[in-house]
Protein 1
Amino acid sequence: MSTLQQFLRNSINHIPFDPIKLDTPIPLNQLPTPALIIDLDKYDLNLAKMQNHLASHDMGLRCHTKMHKCPTIAKKQLALGAQGICCATVSEAEVMQASGINQILITSPIVTPEKVDRVIALAKHSSKLEIVVDYIDGASLLNAAAAVADIKLRVLIDLDPGMGRTGISPGPKALLLAQHIVYHCPNLEFSGLQMYIGNCMHTLGFEKRSKKYRDLLQQGIDTKELLESNDIAVPVFTGGGTGTYDIDSSIGALSDLQAGSYAFMDVEYRDIGGQHGDHFDDFAPSLFVLSTAISKPQDLLITFDAGIKSLATDTSYPELKNIKGVKYHFGGDEHGIVQLDNPSQEIVLGDKLPIIPPHCDPTVNLYDFYYPFRNGVVEEIWPISARGKSQ
Amino acid sequence: MSTLQQFLRNSINHIPFDPIKLDTPIPLNQLPTPALIIDLDKYDLNLAKMQNHLASHDMGLRCHTKMHKCPTIAKKQLALGAQGICCATVSEAEVMQASGINQILITSPIVTPEKVDRVIALAKHSSKLEIVVDYIDGASLLNAAAAVADIKLRVLIDLDPGMGRTGISPGPKALLLAQHIVYHCPNLEFSGLQMYIGNCMHTLGFEKRSKKYRDLLQQGIDTKELLESNDIAVPVFTGGGTGTYDIDSSIGALSDLQAGSYAFMDVEYRDIGGQHGDHFDDFAPSLFVLSTAISKPQDLLITFDAGIKSLATDTSYPELKNIKGVKYHFGGDEHGIVQLDNPSQEIVLGDKLPIIPPHCDPTVNLYDFYYPFRNGVVEEIWPISARGKSQ
C-alpha cells in the first residue's frame, strides 16, 4: 500500500546514483549484450574540449543531462567547470537533485498542478533551481504556488525560434510576459531568456547551419535588447547545443551553451558536417552499443542482438564501428540484420562488435547502465539513474 | 563492490514484480504524464477473446511477454488458460522466472558462453524451460553446458520463414539439425519446431496476408512431416501472432500461438485490416499514453509532453484517441506537436489526453509502470519488471 506521491518519491532512487565498482574488471567481450559502452579516452577528450573551448570564449556550459541521464557524468561535467545542468523534465531534475546537484535548469514548461507541486518541492530544497515559462497564465500559476510555499522561484522565459514546439514569440509578446513576471509575480525572480534553436542543430553543412542559426538567434538578441531597453535586466541568455557550439562562441550572444551530445556523439551529429568537411568530427564518437552476432540464416546476412529496443529509430541507421561494406537494417524489437555487401572484415557468430548509435539521447534512454571502458576493460558500472524519467 | 554476475543477478528484481496497491485511488487526470495507462475493460475483453478463440480451435496460447514485459499480465494470461509464455531474451526470462513463472520458451537463439550459463541456470531451476536453436554448433554448445550441469535441456528448432533474421532453413537442413540434436546431444531434449513468420504479421489486407502466410507456413508443415517421416517426433509446432491468429486457427497446423499484441493493440496492428474491413478490430486498443498539452507557441499547433522517449518511432504515427482532424508529429525527445487542422474538439493547455501508440512493444519498453484504470480511476500500479531487459 502506498499513495501515488510516496510511490513516485520512491521511484526517484529506483536506480542507484553512484558508480558500482566491480571486484573483478571485465573485458568488453565478456559483457552481456546488447550493452551500452563508453570509450573513456574519447569521452574524456570530448568533455575537456567543449569545456575549454567555451571557457576561452567566456561562455558558460550548462550541460544537458537529458542526453546522458547519469549523475556520474553530470558531476564530472560540473567538476570540469560547467556552471550547471539542464534537465528536460521534472522527474529528471528530481533524480539529479537527489544525487546532490543543485544548479538545475528545467528547460521545458509545465502547466499542471501536480508538476508545479514537484517543482516547488525542488525549489524549496535549492534556491538555485530554475525553470522556463512561456505564457502569462503559466507564470501566474508558478507565482501562486511559490507564494504558498513562501519561496522565490527563479524563472527564464522560453522563446520559440519558429519551431512551434515550446516558447513564446520573441519581441513584444515576450516583453509582456517579462513585465508580468517582474511587476506582477512577486514570488518569481526573472533570470533571463532561453532560446534553444533545435531546428538548426542538425542542419547539414556548416555554412548553411551558421547562416540559418544567426538569422534565428537575432530575434532572441533583439528581444534581450528590447527587455533591457524597458529596464528589465537579462542576466542569462541560454541556448545552443553541440551542433552550434562554435557558431555560438563566435557570435558571443549567449551567456551559456546547453550542449549534451558532444560527450558521446552519434551518426546523426557526425553527418551534419563540420567547418572542415562532410563529417562533424570536432568531437569523437565515444558511445557504442556492443552487440553479438547470433544467427546467420542466409549467406549474405548476419543477425545481431540489437534491435529497436536497443537502438533509437527516429533518425538515421546504426553503423558497425570498424567495418565497412556492410549495412545495418532493423530486424524487429530484438534484432538487427547486417547485410554483408563487401565486408572489410569477416564477421562470425559470437562476435561482439560495437555499433555507433544513430541518435544518442533516445538510445541511452533504453538502458539502465553504462559500461565505461579503457584499454578494453570495464572497471565500474555507471547507473543511468534518470532513464525513463520522461515525466 | 560487486562482481558482474552479482550485479546482474541483483538487477533481475530491480523493478518489483507485484502490483502496488494505492492507498487512495487516483483519477486519470491526476497522473504525472506521460503515463502508460491500460483500459481494463478493453484489456479483459481482449485477453478472454483470444483465449476462447484458440481454445475453441484446440490450439494453445503461449503468449509473448516481450510485448508487455509484465509478470502481472503474464500471470493473468496463464490463469485464463495460456499454456506458457514466450520471452525474447534471456534477461526477460530471468525476470519472469523470478516472479514465479516456469513455463517459458526463449524464442531467440543464443551463442555466447555467458548467455548459455544463464540459460542453464534457468533450466536448473525449472525443467519446463525451453529455448530455440538454429545451427548445429549452437546445439552442441547447449548440449555441452547441459552435460556439465547434469540436466536435460528442452530445445526447439527455429525455422527461418525467409525473413533472414534467425532460424535454419526449412527442409533438409532442419532435418540434419534435428538428427544432430536427437542422436548426438544426449543432454538436449528435442521438443519440436518454431516458425515465427514475422514478415507476415503486418501484411496489409486479410486476404493478402492469409495467402502469403499459408504459402510460407507450408514449408514449416513440410519440415514437420519430413522429421516425422524420419522417425523424429515433433510434439510442438509453435508460431504465429496477433496478425495471423484467425488464419492459424483455420489452418490448424500450429500446436500453439505466440501472440502478444492482442492484449493492447496499436496503430500499426489496427491498420493491417481485418476479415471484415480496413481496420483490424478483433481486439480493441486498450493501451494509451496519457499526455498533457503543455505549450501553444503557434495558433494552429499545440504541444504535448510525449515525444520519442515516450512513444515508439519505428512504424506509424501516434494518434490522439478521441479527436479527429488533428495530426501528431514528433517534436524531439520530450515533445509531440499536434497540428490542429480541423479538431473535432477544442484542446487547451493542461488537457490530459490519451494517445494510441504506433507500436506497443517498444513503447511499453520505455516505461517502468502501467497505470491500469476502470471508470477513469487507477487503483494499483503494475511494474513493467522486464523493461529494458534486452540482454
Protein 2
Amino acid sequence: MSEFPLVIAIDAGGTEIKAGLVKGKEVLATQRWATEREGGPDHARDQILFAAGEMARRHPDAKAIGLVVPGVVDSHNGIAVYSENLKWENVPFRKIINEMTGLPVGFGHDVRAGGIAENNFGAGIGFSNTLFLPIGTGIAGAITIDGVMNEDVFSGEIGHMDVGSGYPCECGSCDCLESISTGPSIARIYREKSGKPIANSAEVVKAANSGDVIAIQVWRNSMLALAKAVYAYVTVLAPDVIIFGGGVSKAGKELLDPIQSYLDSKITFQRHPHLTIAQLGDTAGIIGAGIIASRSL
Amino acid sequence: MSEFPLVIAIDAGGTEIKAGLVKGKEVLATQRWATEREGGPDHARDQILFAAGEMARRHPDAKAIGLVVPGVVDSHNGIAVYSENLKWENVPFRKIINEMTGLPVGFGHDVRAGGIAENNFGAGIGFSNTLFLPIGTGIAGAITIDGVMNEDVFSGEIGHMDVGSGYPCECGSCDCLESISTGPSIARIYREKSGKPIANSAEVVKAANSGDVIAIQVWRNSMLALAKAVYAYVTVLAPDVIIFGGGVSKAGKELLDPIQSYLDSKITFQRHPHLTIAQLGDTAGIIGAGIIASRSL
C-alpha cells in the first residue's frame, strides 16, 4: 500500500474521540479519548485539539491530519458550523490544528467520511452511485452521485423523512424515520409495548428470533419504515448500491431481507439497487478521515 | 444575445414535435409536426428525422441541432434507449441526424432539457441546487446538484414515490404520486367522486374556487400527496429552489400555498426551499434543446 501516505486520522463523536495512524485502509495505531461533552462545547473542542496535538507529537512521520466531526460541517472552509450533540458553533478546526501542528489538515463530516471509506475500500467499490446509510442513534446518509460525494450540509437527512411512524421525533417534528428505526427507538418501542426492560435493538432482534411476537412486530415495523424511506430515495436518485452501517446494521440478513422484499414489491421499471452491509464497521470514520487527510496533501 | 449561437432545437413528445430556431432563450421560428405515434415507433422516429431534415434545409445558417425526447435517454451516447410512450428501442438519433445534416447534434431528455432551460434562463437563475418538477400527464423531476444536472436515466422518478394514494398506477405498482397528482389523475378522481364530467385539473381548481366541496377535497388531497413527495426530496437533497412546471402548475398560488404550508409544518432544522412556478412554460423543452445543441459545438 505504498501509494497511500501515512496520516493521522481523528473521528470525533459525542462520546469518544477515536484517533489512529492510517495508511489507506490500514489503521496502524489507535488511541481513544473521551470527548467529555458534559464539560461544554469549549471543553469538547479542547479535547479534540489535545488529541490532535498528542497524535502529531507521537507520530512525527505522519504527513497530514484528517479530522471528522458530526453535525453541520463546512468541509470547504474547515469549520465545524454547529452540532446539536456537542453544542459548538463555528469552530475553525482546520486553521487551529494546522497552526498548532504545522501539518496540512483535512476536515469533514463523520457520516460522509464513513461513506468515502466504504466507497474506496469497502462495500462501495466498483459502484459510482452509492448511498451509505449508518443506522445507530441517528440515521443520516452519505450520498455519492457519479463518484462524487455530496457535501451539502443539509443533504442526506433521511432520518427525518416522514414515514408515518406515529411517534414524535427529537428534531421537533413527528413521524420521522428516526422516531422508529434507530437503535434507541427500536429498543424504546419494544419496552413500551412489552413492558420488558431491554437495552438495545440487538436484543429485540434476538427476542424476535426466539419467537417473541411483540419483538417480531416491532422489528418488522421498524424495517418497513426504513424500507419506505429507502424506496423514496430510490425513486429520487436510483443508486447502484445501498450500504447499511451503524449498530442496527449488525442484524445483517434480518435487516436486508425485509428491505429487499419491500423494494421487490414496489420497484417496477426503476433500477434495483444492490443492498448490502458496510464492511469497515466502526473504523469507517477513521479510514475516511485518513482519506480526507491524504486529499489535503 | 450575441454570445449564443443560432441553433435548431427540437422537442419531440408523444403527440407533437416542436421545432424552432433558438438563440439563447429567444425562440425565433417555430414549426410543429405531429409525431403520429399510432403509426408505430419507426414512423415516429421518421417523423422526427423529417422534422430535423426540414429545419436544417430551411435554416442553413444554424450551427447545430439539439433534440430532446421522452423516456429512457442515453445523452452521453446520443441514443433514445426506450420510450413507453413511443415504443422505440435504441434509436441512435445523434448519429443519424449528424450524418443526415452534417451538423453537430446535441441529444437529451425532455424533462432535463426543461430543467436546464429554467436553470439558465428561468426560475432557477442564481441557484445551484434545483429541482424542476413538471406536473402534466406524468411527474418526473430534473435534479441539479452544485450546478450539475443529474443525467442518470432512472433518477428523478418522483412520480413513482409511494404517497399512499390508495390508487393503482400505470407503472404497475400502486400508491404512486402519479396516481393522484397528475392532471389526468386529478380530473379522474374528481369525476369518480362527483359523477360530473370534467376534462382537466384546471376545471377542478375552478370548481374548488367556486366552493365545490368535492373539488376542494380532491385538489387538497392531490396537493398533500405532492407536498409529501416534495418533503421526502427535501430530506434527501435539500434543494435551494423547487420549480413546478407542466399543466397542473398553472394553478399557481393554489399549488404553491398548500405545499408551502405543508413544508412549513414539517421542516425543523433543514433548509427551506424556495417554491416557485416555472417561467418558460411550454418553450422550456425547446430552449433546453437549444442549450444542449450549443454544448455540442
